[in-house]
Write a structure and sequence with these properties.
heterodimer; A: 193 residues; alpha+beta; 60s Ribosomal Protein L30, Chain: A; four-stranded mixed β-sheet; 7 helices; 4 strands; elongated; B: 432 residues; mainly beta; Rossmann fold; Neuraminidase; 2 domains; six-stranded mixed β-sheet; five-stranded mixed β-sheet
Chain lengths: 193, 432
């Protein structure tokens, strides 16, 4: 439990840090460059030189903006990848969340709080045993259970959709208990609003 | 000494009959055939214009296959008419015919049903067809034979639809009931499943994930057009067609709960008909469409229930075992077939409509599931992985005469079609 707290504070700290630290650069960085080039023009540099400088500054600003965008994109991508790999597992023919599942979902909830643009689809899955029809209902219940947890955690239900795949989309093929246990799951599909 | 022998005998029973002891623990009857089969002589067709290239099988072999699959006959093969063979086997009737290659490239098939003793013609039919349509013509003739000898409609001209994995994606396909003349109904990158036949057999209703959700669609087999139905529902599946009106019962998932809806035959409007706290799925109609079978998890695991078509008078049907699902009412109205899970294995059972008189039809042969009745109520098609992969099988309603219909790939979820045409009238041409 202690480690979980540390993890949670870590995740929160990361979330706060990334939320606070990222936006400023675009405002602060390109501005001084523009000022510098303006000063140079006043100092009586040739017209070509000043144009070239302005061009350089513009390119520099673009590069930085692109870098920022790239960093932002990489960060989002990493978060999305983490979300998509965060599978919640269930017991056979059950849809209650295990303690482990709740811990994981709390982390997912933190990520969704940190990045408001994320809209997720919760997919409910079952293992290969049983009928197609009953497993569709079971997948529906599992996806809903996950959504209910996240709503209780403070995520708006508008940002989450649920879908049941029944036993139709196994993560692991095969008829072993190991395969079954990995297929009894709910997982996330993420879109950016 | 006597006692020791007896003990030995007991232990012998114990060790060498695990099959029976396993069944005893479930305490139900196991399909011992009580079917009465009629011996039927089959004689190869005379080829009047020299040898004909038949393709898969000559006409008499198609008739033999139909006779075996029908569960009604015991085939007595003979290379030519042989009264001694037929009499010994008590084959009071035999089928044969003649084939002639015509100038226009077609084949003229004259098919006959004879009484063995008198060699009197009971019934005859002529077909002028292309060679590739011989199978279809033989199915038609065979159903006439069934009608002459049983006074009931045969199923040799009916069809099966099922789900087949093609290049890793589940697609809906359909074929003659014996698995021949296969055609693909869907060719999507997203999976398709749960096909059922619309009345008239010219449309298939199925579930497609093309919108990344389970949603009911209909495919017109003539125009080839696919259309989404009951579009107000985000997640719909488990369709069941009303045998009288063509209305469709189906399941809808809403806020994580599954309920039953009744929709019109056009796929436009629907209304909710189940108001239980639990989830409801796998609806099925009684033969006169007055009652509805369905599965509910109100008791924890899935169990089969029955209710009136308006959702009234809910009664539980299955009480034995913890997992009973996917019920289907026999067209004759007397039995319900369903799938039950025991020790992680799926098996097929039937019971009376009140849940009594349980009979286990499959055992000790992998998983057996998704039973569907033939329109005459004599046969049950199902999917089984007894061979290592899921394939389609047909058996008699008592579990006997199991015949494998598909051989390759992965085939699941068979659904039998309706009768194609109105009942035939008894033709007595040739009979004096």
């Amino acid at each position: 439990m202690k480690t979980l707290n540390w993890l949670l504070t870590g995740a929160l700290a990361f979330a706060i840090f990334s939320a606070c630290s990222n936006p400023p650069p675009p405002e602060t960085d390109p501005a001084p460059k523009a000022k510098k080039s303006a000063i140079r023009v006043q100092e009586g540099m040739s017209k070509e030189d000043s144009l070239a400088a302005a061009e350089r500054a513009r390119l520099e600003a673009e590069r930085l903006a692109a870098e920022k965008l790239e960093a932002d994109r990489a960060r989002l991508e990493e978060m999305i990848n983490r979300l998509m790999s965060d599978d919640v597992y269930f017991e056979f023919d059950r849809f209650e969340l295990t303690e482990k599942a709740k811990e994981l979902l709390a982390q997912v909830g933190d990520m969704l709080k940190a990045e408001e643009r994320f809209v997720v689809t919760v997919e409910g899955h079952t293992d290969a045993r049983g009928t197609e029809d009953y497993n569709m209902t079971l997948g529906g219940k599992r996806a809903m259970k996950v959504k209910e947890f996240l709503v209780a955690y403070g995520i708006s239900s508008d940002r989450m959709e649920t879908v049941s795949y029944g036993k139709e989309k196994p993560k692991v093929e095969g008829a072993s208990e190991d395969a079954y246990s990995q297929n009894r799951r709910a997982n996330f599909r993420v879109k950016i609003k | 000494m006597m006692r020791r022998v007896f003990l030995f005998f007991l232990s012998f029973c114990f060790f060498f009959s695990p099959v029976f002891s396993a069944i005893d623990t479930i305490a139900v009857d196991v399909g011992i055939s009580v079917f009465k089969t009629m011996p039927l002589g089959v004689v190869p067709f005379a080829e009047k214009s020299g040898k004909i290239e038949w393709g898969e099988a000559p006409p008499h072999q198609i008739l033999e296959s139909d006779a075996n699959l029908s569960g009604r006959f015991e085939v007595i093969s003979s290379p030519k008419f042989d009264l001694v063979t037929f009499s010994r086997a008590r084959a009071k009737f035999y089928v044969t015919g003649s084939a002639e290659l015509l100038a226009n490239g077609k084949v003229k098939l004259s098919c006959y049903l004879y009484a063995s003793q008198t060699k009197q013609l009971v019934f005859g039919e002529n077909y002028e067809i292309a060679v590739q349509n011989v199978r279809e013509a033989m199915h038609l003739f065979f159903d006439q034979v069934v009608f002459e000898l049983w006074g009931e409609r045969g199923v040799a001209s009916t069809k099966l639809a099922w789900v087949r994995k093609i290049d890793g994606v589940k697609q809906v396909i359909y074929a003659d009931y014996d698995g021949y003349r296969r055609r693909q109904a869907t060719n999507d990158s997203a999976l398709s499943m749960m096909p059922v036949w619309a009345l008239g057999n010219n449309k298939l209703i199925f579930v497609s994930f093309r919108n990344e959700k389970p949603q009911l669609h209909v495919k017109d087999l003539d125009t080839k057009r696919v259309r989404r139905i009951y579009t107000e529902h985000k997640q719909s599946f488990s369709p069941a067609v009303n045998p009288i009106s063509g209305e469709i019962l189906f399941s809808v998932i809403r806020d994580g709960k599954t309920d039953l809806y009744l929709g019109d035959a056009e796929g436009k409007k629907s209304r909710r008909i189940s108001y239980l706290k639990s989830s409801q799925t796998s609806p099925a109609w009684s033969p006169r469409a007055t009652e509805i079978l369905f599965t509910s998890d109100r008791g924890g695991g899935p169990q089969i229930y029955v209710m009136g078509r308006d959702g009234s008078d809910v009664r539980r049907v299955t009480f034995m075992g913890r997992y009973n699902e996917k019920a289907a009412w026999s067209p004759t109205g007397d039995r319900i077939v369903y799938t039950s899970m025991d020790n992680g294995k799926m098996n097929i059972y039937t019971c009376a409509f009140d849940g009594s008189d349980i009979v286990q039809l499959t055992s000790n042969a992998g998983n057996n599931e998704h039973p569907t009745w033939s329109p005459d109520g004599n046969l049950i098609a199902f999917a089984s992985d007894r061979s290592g992969t899921y394939q389609i099988y047909i058996m008699r309603r008592d579990g006997s005469n199991v015949t494998q219909i598909t051989k390759q790939g992965e085939n699941t979820s068979p659904t039998w079609s309706w009768y194609d045409s109105p009942p035939p009238t008894s033709k007595k041409e040739g009979k004096k």
